[in-house]
Amino acid sequence: MVFSPRVSLIPAATVILVRKVAQGLEVFLLKRHRQSSFMSNAYVFPGGKVDPEDDGHEAAAIRELFEEAGVLLATPALSEDDRAAARSRLLAGEVSFAQVLSGASLTPDLARLHWWARWVTPSQEPRRFDAVFFVAELPPGQRPSFDQKETVEELWITPAQAIERQATGELRLPPPQLRTMHDLVAAGSIEGIAAAAARRQESRPAICPRIAMAEGGIQILFPWDPDYAGTPGEGQVIAANDAAAGAPTRFIWGGQAWRVM
Asked: Quick one: 193 exposed, middle or buried, by C-beta within 10 A (0-12, 13-18, 19+)?
């Protein structure tokens, strides 16, 4: 897909970290600092910009997950103390992530990452990202934690609970995160997520929402919404039967939270 050259798209990578629990599954969220330049005070999945030193989106996803959540997708497994020490040095700028890996003879465990979606910020926004979302199950023996720098709180929550708390304004979720929660509810389990991720590998469309003004407020339309093609903005229509598509097809801003139309 070709996007307007007027605004450069910033490549980014995000990890939807999940774990199996008695009620099905939980997803890990971080609350961004209120002074963050992007998505302040919002609950998001660990992730960030692809750095020039990263060897692609997968490498950036593994690095960001370690920086922001302390979870290291690499082999062989490090002890909790060694992971904490390496992360502390990394966040302090004493070493690079490449040095963390080489210093402990680690190899990124790319097999733990599974493609989930590609999200592109709507063309009306002044700062735009081209973010690949991966899903990964929490490795045994690891416990995530916020970095106390860019993020200030952490939360394990079921997708259904996240949707409910978002609707009340208690939990602020940006549209990609909220839409992903609906996908995870549909998947239902870790096994369901694995199956859905396998289907999503086939087409990998770019999800570039379009923004429309309507009675009741601002709406976010996803590329499989019936009115998407007639709404101004960049992006391409995605077929309703694509693995990335599904209900809901749009959100509306209710003053305090995004809600389903």
From this structure: buried
Can you give the residue range of the structural domain that contains 191?
9-202
Q: Evaluate whether residue 244 is within a structural domain.
A: no
Question: Given a cut of 50, is residue 152 above it in pLDDT?
Answer: yes
Return d(Cα 38, Cα 48) in angstroms, integer.
10
> Distance between CA 74 and CA 167 in Å, rounded?
37
Residue type, 257: A
The amino acid sitting at 156 is: W
Q: Report the distance separating Cα 159 and Cα 186, nearest Å.
A: 10
Q: Is residue 79 part of a domain?
A: yes
Using alpha carbons only, how large is the chain's radius of gyration in Å?
18
Contact 64, 133 (CB under 8 A): no
112 near 84, Cβ under 8 Å?
no
Question: Does residue 225 form part of some domain?
Answer: no
* Number of domain units in the chain: 1
Q: Is 255 left (phi over 0), alpha (psi -120 to 50) or beta?
A: left
Q: What is the CATH number of the domain that holds 102?
A: 3.90.79.10
CA dihedral (19, 20, 23, 24) positive or negative? positive
Two tokens, residue 173: 């979720």
Cα separation, 124 vs 222, whole angstroms:
14
Find tokens 């002044």 and name the residue: 126
Q: Is residue 100 part of a domain?
A: yes
Q: Are 206 and 236 in contact (CB under 8 A)?
A: yes
Q: What is the pLDDT of residues 66-125, one digit of tens each?
A: 999 999 999 999 999 999 999 999 999 999 999 999 999 999 999 999 999 999 999 988
